[in-house]
Amino acid sequence: MPNQIKAISKNRAIYIACGDANSACITRDADGQQDVWIWGVGLYGRNGIGTSDKEVLRPVAIADFSSGRFLVKSIYLGMTSSFVITDEGQVHCWGSG
Q1: Residue 50 has pLDDT above 80, yes or no
Q2: Which among 41, 38, 33 has a CA at the least distance from the CA of 12?
Q3: Which domain covers residue 75, as residue numbers?
């Protein structure tokens, strides 16, 4: 039976991505503040939260994208790396890629 992901349920989900062994969600609150959340296996640093192989069981906000410096439009989760595209067309990546 599907369950709501409580860690990110306070804000509106605007994009979700599923990778090989991790998942991500972009949320926005009523004031327009955006967060990029990630969880799952962090092999090769693909979760972008500073721990390379740690498995993250609950969504964690990626600090670089919660500061308001970037407005993320989409996220892609690969086998060993992750990428985001900002509203200005910039590509940011982390992991082994």
Answers
A1: no
A2: 33
A3: 11-95
